[in-house]
Amino acid sequence: MLDGLFKEVEKEMELATKAVRKEMDSIRTGRASASLVEDLKVDYYGAPTLLKQLASISVPDATTIVIQPWDKASLKAIEKAILLSPLKLMPMNDGKVLRITLPPLTEERRQELIKLVKKKAEDGRVHVRNIRRDANEKLKEMKENGDISEDDYYKYLKKVQELTDKYVSKVDEILKEKEKEIEEE
Q1: Nearest to 43 by CA among 29, 33, 53
Q2: 3-state secondary structure of 59
Q3: Going along 17-97, which residue ranges are E strands?
Q4: Cα distance between residue 105 and residue 172, in whole Å
Q5: Do residues 83 and 90 lie in contact, with contact meaning Cβ atoms separated by under 8 Å?
Q6: For residue 91, is pLDDT > 70?
Q7: Residues 108-150: pLDDT tens digits?
Q8: How far apart are CA 6 and CA 22, in angstroms?
């Protein structure tokens, strides 16, 4: 029963960490990445569809993203979705593909991005700590019901804390990588 609890706690913490990584990947730096645009929703014949399902996305160099739709009729809808996105990107449409050239970051924009990534990382740490809190409450309930001894209770609390520390440090590593990426551009 307790093994299941720990597996579930670790799984949830791993998912929280992956969510932080995905959020960080979607934040625009001066470096081109397909992950910036692949999850944009495009109005494709009235249905919101992910861009990655409508086109191939390539990154030929460090500052350019090329989007080639499989259905040429979707080109205008993709362009509109990019223009309306919060990314503030200007695609160039040549009738066959969209080219997006990422401008270099200003110092002011770098500082804004660093604040944003720090907030996203803190949200991730809070999520991991909330998982810890829920696990600790389950352990307390088990102790009060007599399902585990007091010694086991403290042993398992320590185990949950070790998992928490592990995943909080993973979030911190993701933050450091992203900050470095922002400052390097």
Answers
A1: 53
A2: strand
A3: 41-44, 47-50, 55-61, 64-69, 91-93
A4: 23
A5: yes
A6: yes
A7: 878 888 998 999 999 999 999 999 999 999 999 999 999 889 9
A8: 24
